[in-house]
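Sequence, please.
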């Protein structure tokens, strides 16, 4: 018999790519009458653990990105709430692995849902190396959602 899922966490990094993982998390939350938390973690490249470069234009852009991300997550969450899911949205800054594990423990998460992908150089800069660390340290079950790469646009897409 499968354990009862009471608390599900979906980790989002780049909202437009994580929609499938969020939809699966919301579907599971509705199916098991569980609470869904969508958490977006951004590694702050301007903070203590980052580069700490005094670049005011980039800092403004970074704050704009945070606001836009929150708006996108709130819009997705509202759509899923209308479909019957109980959802909380969290936007966190810091080292992804630490923030995710801390949230899992605090919220007594039963299942972590996240997009399965390779981490490239830009992701290491923005998020740190978190997928491998998370899998090794995971205090709960994990579901990796495979996202097929988008097909290259053809002449018919013009």
């Amino acid at each position: 018999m499968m354990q009862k899922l009471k608390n599900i966490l979906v980790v989002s990094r780049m909202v437009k790519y994580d929609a499938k993982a969020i939809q699966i998390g919301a579907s599971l939350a509705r199916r098991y009458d569980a609470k869904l938390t969508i958490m977006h973690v951004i590694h702050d490249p301007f903070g203590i653990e980052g580069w700490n470069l005094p670049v005011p234009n980039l800092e403004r852009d970074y704050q704009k990105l945070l606001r836009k991300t929150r708006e996108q997550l709130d819009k997705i969450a509202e759509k899923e709430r209308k479909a019957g899911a109980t959802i909380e949205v969290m936007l966190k800054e810091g080292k992804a692995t630490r923030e995710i594990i801390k949230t899992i423990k605090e919220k007594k998460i039963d299942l972590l849902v996240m997009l399965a992908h390779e981490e490239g150089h830009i992701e290491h800069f923005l998020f740190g190396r978190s997928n491998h660390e998370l899998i090794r340290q995971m205090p709960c079950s994990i579901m990796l959602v495979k996202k097929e790469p988008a097909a290259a646009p053809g002449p018919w897409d013009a």
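The first strand starts at residue 7 and ends at 12.
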